[in-house]
Every structure is written in structure tokens, then in C-alpha cells.
């Protein structure tokens, strides 16, 4: 069935009493961009000047047949195909449906399946980046088809791609409240030569995801003290996340990475290919995530810590591959 058979072009002056086949958009630069007429609107005599003013001398009326979908229906099926329970759908608007988060959490989107969908002609599946922290109401995906009507088979292919794995294409993982122990190393802080500036920054970053610092303890640049404090947080306080600050680079007094390793940590990576945040250490000790935070976390607003922390709070296990992938696009400053 050809497009011309399904869509009938009618001059607006002859269209009174006929139904619009799609939303009609008006753009007044700097003032308005939006829907002037809704799909399904029955044209009235008084609409004709408005239609002409947005450049519409003809409109489409439509006859739908089996095997062909209107853009609104196509968008609805595509949105349903990728959604999960933590996601809300808007109504179609100019043929587009937006999927929004229903919760505060981490948006996780399967790039491989999104790429496969967008490789199909006429399919638009536009997403935010995976592993972004999101708030309720925040848009995650906008979807539509490019033509006004489309073969149902194309949309069915999107549905098949979505169903090719059990994991949803789009999910929002809620943040779990973690009880974190913070060990601030550095003899200059321990001995009171300077005031600690790390604690408040780390505390604020954790609280943004609903977690808390149960206690901040101070240690000099002495491995045995640092190891002892790690063990105390692990076994006495049952901390669910252990963070260490300072002493992460190359000076002889930088004892933190060695102490984290000697405490029995399985190191995922010492170093991340991201700037700032290149000297960060990620590991697990008896299954508890443990991180060494370099000095830049104290003063740079966005480092590798800000990428990894929300993932940990959302319950993800960080693997070597996750660290490797931080390099491409990871030069943010420094
Ligand atoms: N030759 C190299 N130099 C540096 C490298 C490197 O690879 N080779 N890496 C750089 C990067 S990246 C970072 S980040 C920094 C800092 O690393 P550290 O984690 O070892 O930081 P520190 O040496 O312990 O301290 C740096 C600076 O910050 C002050 N500080 C530390 N903790 C606190 C605190 N709790 N409150 C206030 N101020 C604090 C400390 O006194 C120092 O002045 O290394 C680069 N250099
Ligand atoms: O670790 Mo530094 O942490 O890249 O500025």
C-alpha cells in the first residue's frame, strides 16, 4: 500500500469538517514552539487563517489500514518496548513520546540495543547517557518515527530488538542508603598543621544519593594505622562502603594505595583513565567497595569519583571494563 493511498492531501479551504492526521506545529522564534492543532482536530471555518499563517495550504487526512501505523501509535509501541516499572510515559505530542524517570536513581540504558534500533530507517530513539543519576520527572528517552505513517514491521523489529535480552533496555536503579566509613590520611591534617577540607566534600556527595558517612577518622601517613582503620570500619562498624582520602599519588609519604592493598583488597584498578581523577583506586574488600580518593576530588566538582559513586550507590559492581571505558570522553579538566 503506497503512502498516497493512505494519506489524502486536501486544500485547507476544502478541509472544513475533515479530521487532521497529525499534530500541527507553530514556531515563533524566541516566543513559541508547540502544537497549534492536535491530531484528530476537526477543521472549522475559523481555523483556516491560522492554518495559512503557519504555512499550511494543504493538510493530510488519513485512512489507516492493516500493517501501517500512525506516528503516535508507533511511538507508543516503541516506548512500551523499552520501558521498565520505574519509568513513566508522556502522551504523544507532535508524534513524540518522552519516557521520564518515576524515581531518584541511576538511569541504565543498553547502548548496543539503542544503536540497533536507531540503525533502522525512520526510527528515533534518543537517550541521555547511561549511568546518569536522575531525579523524578527527568526525561530519559524521547522516541518517535520520522514519517507520519510507517510499516508496522519496522516497529515490530524495534520490539524484537528490545526483547532480545531479559534486561530492560532502559531501567532506573534506585539508590540504596549506604553506611560509609571515611578515613582521611595525611600527617599534615592528622597533626593539625592544616584543616581538613576533604570531609565536607565527600559527605555532601554521599548525601546527594541518600548515603551517609557514619564516621570520619584521621590517620597519619603510616600504613599500619591506615590498615587498622580499614579493618575497624569493615569488622566493627560493618561499613558498606569505605573511602580513603589523600596520599594517592607518587610521593614517598603517599601510603594509601599500598595500605588498601595490604589490608586485603581485591584491586579492580589503581588509576582511572579520566582527568581529573586519574589517581583514584577502586577495589573490594570482603565484598565491600573500597576507594582511594585523590586530592582532586576535594576541589574539582566532577571527577572519576562522581562517575563511580552513583553506580556503587545503585548497587552496581564495578569491573575493570567499567574503568577502562572512562577514558574515551574522560578528559574534563586537570
Ligand atoms: N609527579 C606526579 N605528581 C602528581 C601526580 C603524578 O602522577 N605524578 N598525580 C597528581 C594527581 S592526579 C593528584 S590528584 C595529586 C594529589 O594526589 P594525592 O591524593 O596524593 O594528594 P596528597 O599528596 O595527599 O595531597 C595533595 C594536596 O592536598 C592537600 N590535602 C590532602 N588531604 C587534605 C585534606 N584532607 N584537607 C585539606 N587538604 C588536604 C595536601 O596537603 C596537599 O597540599 O597529585 C598530583 N601530582
Ligand atoms: O587524580 Mo588527579 O586526581 O587526576 O587530579
Automatic annotation (TrEMBL):
Record's keyword terms, sorted: Magnesium, Metal-binding, Molybdenum, Molybdenum cofactor biosynthesis, Transferase
A cellular component annotation (GO) from this entry: cytosol
Catalytic activity as recorded in UniProt: adenylyl-molybdopterin + molybdate = Mo-molybdopterin + AMP + H(+)
Keyword match tRNA-binding: no
Cofactor(s), names only, from the UniProt record: Mg(2+)
E.C. no: 2.10.1.1
Pfam families from the UniProt entry: MoCF_biosynth
Ranges of residues in domain MoaB/Mog: 181-314
Protein's pathway: Cofactor biosynthesis; molybdopterin biosynthesis
A GO biological-process term: Mo-molybdopterin cofactor biosynthetic process
Protein family: Belongs to the MoeA family.
Protein name: Molybdopterin molybdenumtransferase
Organism for this UniProt entry: Paenibacillus mucilaginosus 3016
Organism phylogeny: Bacteria, Bacillati, Bacillota, Bacilli, Bacillales
Amino acid at each position: 500500500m503506497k503512502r498516497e493511498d493512505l494519506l489524502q492531501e486536501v486544500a485547507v479551504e476544502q478541509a472544513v469538517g475533515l479530521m487532521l492526521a497529525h499534530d500541527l506545529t507553530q514556531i515563533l522564534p524566541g516566543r513559541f514552539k508547540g502544537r497549534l492543532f492536535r491530531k484528530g482536530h476537526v477543521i472549522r471555518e475559523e481555523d483556516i487563517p491560522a492554518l495559512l499563517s503557519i504555512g499550511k495550504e494543504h493538510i493530510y487526512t488519513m485512512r489507516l489500514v492493516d500493517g501501517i501505523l500512525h506516528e503516535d501509535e508507533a511511538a507508543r509501541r516503541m516506548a512500551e518496548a523499552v520501558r521498565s516499572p520505574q519509568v513513566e510515559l508522556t502522551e504523544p505530542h507532535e508524534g513524540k513520546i518522552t519516557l521520564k524517570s518515576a524515581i531518584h536513581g541511576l538511569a541504565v540504558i543498553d547502548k548496543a540495543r539503542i544503536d540497533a534500533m536507531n540503525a533502522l530507517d525512520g526510527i528515533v530513539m534518543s537517550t541521555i547517557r547511561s549511568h546518569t543519576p536522575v531525579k523524578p520527572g527527568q526525561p530519559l528517552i524521547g522516541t518517535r518515527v520520522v514519517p507520519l505513517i510507517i510499516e508496522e514491521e519496522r516497529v515490530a523489529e524495534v520490539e524484537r530488538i528490545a526483547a532480545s535480552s531479559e534486561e530492560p533496555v532502559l531501567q532506573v536503579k534506585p539508590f540504596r542508603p549506604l553506611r560509609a566509613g571515611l578515613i582521611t590520611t595525611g600527617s599534615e591534617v592528622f597533626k593539625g598543621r592544616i584543616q581538613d577540607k576533604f570531609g565536607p566534600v565527600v559527605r555532601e556527595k554521599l548525601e546527594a544519593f541518600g548515603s551517609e558517612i557514619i564516621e570520619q577518622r584521621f590517620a597519619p601517613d603510616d600504613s599500619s594505622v591506615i590498615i587498622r582503620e580499614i579493618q575497624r570500619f569493615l569488622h566493627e562498624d560493618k561499613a558498606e562502603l569505605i573511602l580513603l582520602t589523600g596520599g594517592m599519588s607518587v610521593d614517598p609519604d603517599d601510603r594509601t594505595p599500598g595500605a588498601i592493598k595490604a589490608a586485603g583488597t581485591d584491586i579492580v584498578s589503581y588509576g582511572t583513565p579520566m582527568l581529573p581523577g586519574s589517581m583514584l583506586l577502586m577495589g573490594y574488600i570482603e565484598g565491600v567497595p573500597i576507594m582511594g580518593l585523590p586530592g582532586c576530588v576535594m576541589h574539582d566538582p566532577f571527577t572519576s569519583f562522581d562517575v563511580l559513586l552513583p553506580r556503587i550507590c545503585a548497587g552496581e559492581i564495578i569491573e575493570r571494563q567499567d574503568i577502562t571505558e572512562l577514558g574515551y570522553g574522560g578528559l574534563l579538566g586537570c
